[in-house]
Design a protein that fits this description.
Length: about 425
């Protein structure tokens, strides 16, 4: 047994701030409120429903995660956020159309009380949306200072002891890191000079880290995964993680691909297409925004299948991803996958997957888990990139190493991290263990 970390207790209120209060955020708020009122179960949330084995199998120790580690109670959570369109979470939830009115009505007063702060918004990065509740300022540094002021005001008005920020806004247009992102100094100078390479999500990441607030990025934008943000997180002692919630089609890929590789079945190609009609689908209908998402989605298979190690099995895969905006579907995304594999003596086989998923229903518990785990990490004295949370991401940060995309390895990493923090031995699943 190792020495457990000294983790501060989860006393007081935890503020969860979301840049973006659309389908994902409003569904997350609604679910937590419904759970608190005994109207729903927190299905899909590891922090609320999962157990974790401790020690050998014959010891029979299998507590819930929330009973092993000191997580914030849902009763102590308070929500807030920014949005360029919706004035409050009730209107956002009704506009998104994810939840039925019968589920919204009993919690409508509490949802209406989550009032959106005016957002930092630039249509250059999200061409298909028009912001109507948008901050103005002298330059981007001024806008970042306004966000920092918002965070402090929310902290005071809601008597928050701790806070976490989870980006739930839209996917921004594609960009590569540039010179302005190389250091804290170049980034701050770039904000003052309104550098065109600084996107809104980066201003939120900067404001969070400067305020001592852990940050998670639920979209594939460049935000905290930049040298300047890594330096800032270390300097301020703040944890961060990301990026891009792993919900529908990519979730299926990270479940299925490890199985093919485990059995040494070869692959010729994987064709993925999505039809999606919510605000995210509208945004991704623009080629520059789709490219950001495409890069995030395409990175999964190579890392799992290791074509450089198994060239005869995975060295020549045609991997195609498409997203099609189709308004009648709303938030109920349909993901089609046509997978061409081959087996003994090279004989071909096909697998078809048609996942009719509810994107925000899958993403909402991720928002909650990330907020609670990041808060735990901060109370445990952790800072910088929290790679153990890769379980939740399409594009996990991994620093100089290639990211791990196999969801089963990611789950082991997450649970073993929690075990080690609590002074328990990691579980290796050996015969004796």
């Amino acid at each position: 047994m190792s020495e457990p970390l000294k983790i501060a207790p989860a006393d007081g209120r935890l503020g969860i701030l979301t840049p973006g209060m659309g389908a994902v955020a409003s569904t997350a708020y609604a679910g937590v409120i419904a759970v608190r009122q005994g109207l729903a179960a927190p299905i899909g949330s590891l922090t609320q429903m999962a157990h974790i084995r401790l020690g050998r199998r014959d010891e029979g120790r299998n507590p819930m995660i929330k009973d092993l580690v000191p997580l914030a109670s849902l009763d102590d959570v308070v929500f807030g956020g920014w949005d360029p369109i919706s004035p409050n979470a009730l209107e956002a939830a009704r506009t998104a159309g994810v939840l039925d009115e019968r589920d919204i009505a009993p919690i409508s007063a509490e949802l209406e009380g989550v009032v959106a702060m005016p957002a930092v918004f630039d249509q250059r990065w999200v061409k298909r949306l028009e912001g109507v509740r948008v901050k103005t300022g002298d330059n981007k540094f001024d806008l970042a200072q306004q966000l920092i002021a918002d965070i402090e005001r929310f902290r005071t008005e809601n008597s928050c002891d701790r806070m976490v920020m989870v980006w739930c806004g839209s996917t921004e247009a594609y960009q590569e890191p540039s010179a302005v992102h190389e250091s804290i100094g170049t980034f701050e100078e770039g904000m003052r000079n309104d550098d065109e390479n600084i996107a809104p999500s980066q201003l939120y990441a900067y404001a969070a880290l400067m305020s001592g607030v852990p940050f998670a990025n639920g979209a594939p934008n460049l935000s905290a995964d930049l040298p300047c943000m890594a330096q800032l997180a270390e300097r301020e002692g703040v944890p961060y993680t990301g990026k891009d919630f792993k919900t529908g089609q990519t979730l299926m890929k990270t479940i299925l691909a490890p199985g093919f590789k485990a059995r040494m079945l070869g692959m010729r190609g994987w064709y993925s297409t999505n039809i999606l009609g919510n605000r995210d689908g509208e945004v991704l209908d623009d080629p520059e925004n789709f490219k950001t998402k495409e890069v995030s989605k395409l990175g999964v298979l190579d890392t799992i299948l290791q074509p450089e190690v198994y060239p005869e099995l995975y060295g020549h895969i045609d991997h195609v991803v498409r997203i099609n905006y189709y308004p009648p579907r709303g938030d109920n995304k349909e993901g089609w996958d046509a997978i061409d594999i081959f087996g003994w003596m090279g004989y071909p086989m096909q697998i078809k997957v048609d996942f009719l998923c509810r994107d925000s229903i899958l993403a909402a518990p991720i928002v909650l888990d990330l907020a609670l785990f990041l808060d735990l990490a901060q109370r445990a004295g952790q800072s910088g990139n929290q790679e153990w949370l890769s379980f939740y991401w399409k594009s996990p940060h991994a620093g100089a190493n290639p990211p791990e995309h196999d969801i089963f390895i990611q789950q082991t990493k997450l649970k073993n991290t929690l075990r080690e923090w609590m002074g328990e031995e990691p579980v290796t699943h050996s015969e004796a263990g």
